[in-house]
Specification:
Number of domains: 1
Number of strands: 26
Strand content: over 45%
Oligomer: single chain
Shape: globular
CATH class: Mainly Beta
Number of helices: 7
CATH topology: Porin
Radius of gyration: 23 Å
Helix content: 10-25%
CATH superfamily: Capsule assembly protein Wzi
Structural class: mainly beta
Largest sheet: 18 strands, antiparallel, barrel
Distance between the termini: 29 Å
């Protein structure tokens, strides 16, 4: 981690000395985003809400990110603790902010009498130079403990959900580093170029079936073009797979994704999505980043046919929409298509390769006409074997984690959230009910684990969603928090949650009480 930090400081030093309105991005964190999403969803007419994180220069004229939670304090030290960056320097057209990262959460499982904790220390640096360029660096060192129900999966793959590789394990504690960051450059108001190691999210819901922040961070290069009522994004991603170890313990694969968002009018948005995943090596040669997929406007299927038949790569397509109802209600949805054969669909015979899914949801930022009262409810459905392929080097995953929904495939899920804010105080209630079909044996796949090849399927026809070892999952949580300092995203949080798994042979339940301090840089909750 020290070597990474030195390299990061070196890059930042060079950038600041050679050459940032604000071309940095908002944090991809739900707790931090509520304070400005009300503005961009309800008080803007041509904002592309489904492309996250948001470019701050695009929302600064609408939101009140810095002043919404401001507490007037005459005392200099109190004002520093509650309203200011830890270090902030501004001179001419250059500014730089340095802030600490601190998380100390303690939890007790009342059902099984287990104690766990999460501890994180680190720092963030973000800088803007001459209204064109921005740099952000996050360096975090973590030491966590987990409940017994998560330990078996963590130990089997040596990966922490959302975070990545474990550095070491000692006395039940897991140690791991997490370094993310990017450079963002906007030559004009229409274009933005971003390169870094971080996450992206495309969708208006709590989940995304197209691209989510479920996996850990990955290197990427992204181009965004915004003109008239259209935003077009091209994302080149460099992914890794742990099932095919190389000299660095992980095997390389790549992804190119296109996303087109069109605000048809003041109420209706429609968006299109396509993505291809391919492995760096095949039986013929070492492909590296295939130049066939560098074209920013190409449709992948024609390019893919040039590479040979049968298709060597994994192509996904999809679309989504958002429709504003009244002043502050939004109906939204997505459809993901991994494979589609209309002839087989019409037969209603459960062909394994009919791999699709959909999402439908409703969200309101002033629910029941109450200011700062947020409500969301959505339903997600994904058929078996969606996102999977012949090998895990071609599936839609990264570091043994799905790039879309955390359950992978072969599931039905309902998510509901209520949240109320009063100044810096907030209270949130969250409820999840899901049914998915797990695998009962190692060599047979019923389609939920996208890291199993679809050649492990037990039969050709008769596949139904939630087939296999049917598992009912229920999660409920009530959480209260106080935002100590919005500049460094530090919260005091306390709450209680319940997690329950039911199958034909097992019944597991956890009742957890937690309290502590938390810096909101990422969405790192482990729901499943």
């Amino acid at each position: 981690m020290i070597n990474k930090a030195i390299a990061i400081f070196s890059i930042l030093f060079l950038v600041v000395n050679y050459s940032f309105c604000q071309q940095d991005y908002t944090l991809l964190n739900n707790e931090s985003s509520y304070k400005y999403e009300d503005f961009i969803y309800n008080k803007t007419t041509n904002f592309h809400t489904s492309v996250k994180p948001y470019l701050i220069s695009e929302i600064s004229k609408y939101d009140s990110i810095n002043s919404f939670f401001l507490i007037d304090k005459d005392d200099r030290s109190t004002n520093f603790l509650l309203n200011k960056n830890f270090i902030f320097k501004s001179k001419h057209d250059i500014n730089i902010a340095v802030n600490p990262v601190l998380t100390t959460l303690f939890a007790t499982d009342l059902q099984n009498n287990e104690n766990t904790y999460k501890q994180s220390v680190g720092f963030t640096i973000n800088s803007n130079i001459k209204k064109k360029l921005a740099v952000r660096i996050n360096v975090v060192y973590n030491k966590n403990q987990y409940y017994e129900d998560l330990l078996s999966s963590i130990d089997s793959i040596n990966i922490i959900p959302h975070w990545g590789k474990i550095n070491k394990q000692n006395s039940g504690s897991y140690y791991f580093n997490y370094t993310t960051g990017y450079i963002s450059y906007s030559p004009n108001k229409n274009f933005n170029f971003q390169a870094g190691n971080d996450k992206n999210f495309w969708g208006d819901g709590e989940r995304s079936l197209l691209l989510s922040d479920n996996s850990n961070a990955y290197p990427f290069f992204k181009t965004s073009f915004n003109i008239w009522k259209i935003k077009y994004v091209v994302l080149y991603s460099f992914l890794k797979d742990i099932d095919y170890p190389d000299e660095q313990n992980y095997h390389k694969k790549y992804s190119t994704s296109h996303y087109l968002s069109w605000n048809i009018n003041k109420r209706l948005n429609f968006n299109l999505f396509e993505s291809v995943v391919w492995k760096s090596e095949d039986t013929l040669n070492y492909r590296k980043f295939d130049i066939n997929y560098l074209n920013p406007v190409i449709f992948f299927r024609p390019a893919e046919y040039q590479l040979g038949d049968p298709s060597p790569d994994n192509i996904l397509m999809g679309f989504g929409f958002k429709y504003k109802i009244g002043k502050s209600n939004h109906l939204y949805g997505q459809v993901i298509i991994d494979e589609f054969n209309l002839k087989e669909i019409k037969k209603f015979n459960g062909w394994w390769a009919n791999k699709q899914g959909f999402q439908i949801g409703l969200k309101s930022y002033n629910f029941l006409s109450v200011n700062n009262f947020y409500f969301l409810t959505e339903f997600n459905y994904v058929r078996p074997y969606t996102y999977s392929h012949l090998t895990s080097l071609q599936n839609y995953g990264n570091y043994y984690q799905a790039m879309a929904h955390p359950l992978g495939a072969n599931f039905e899920e309902s998510v509901s959230i209520l949240r109320y804010n009063y100044k810096r105080f907030s209270i949130k209630a969250k409820f999840i009910y899901a049914v998915y079909g797990a695998d009962s044996t190692q060599n047979i796949s019923y389609g939920q684990n996208i890291y199993k090849p679809y050649t492990y399927k037990p039969f050709e026809y008769g596949h139904e969603t939630t087939q296999g070892l049917k598992t009912d999952f229920v999660f409920s949580e009530i959480q209260a928090s106080y935002l100590i300092n919005p500049k460094i995203h530090l919260r005091l949080v306390a709450g209680v949650n319940t997690r329950q798994y039911n199958t034909s042979s097992t019944n597991k339940k956890l009742n957890c009480v937690f309290i502590g301090l938390k810096t909101d840089l990422y969405n790192d909750d482990v729901d499943y």
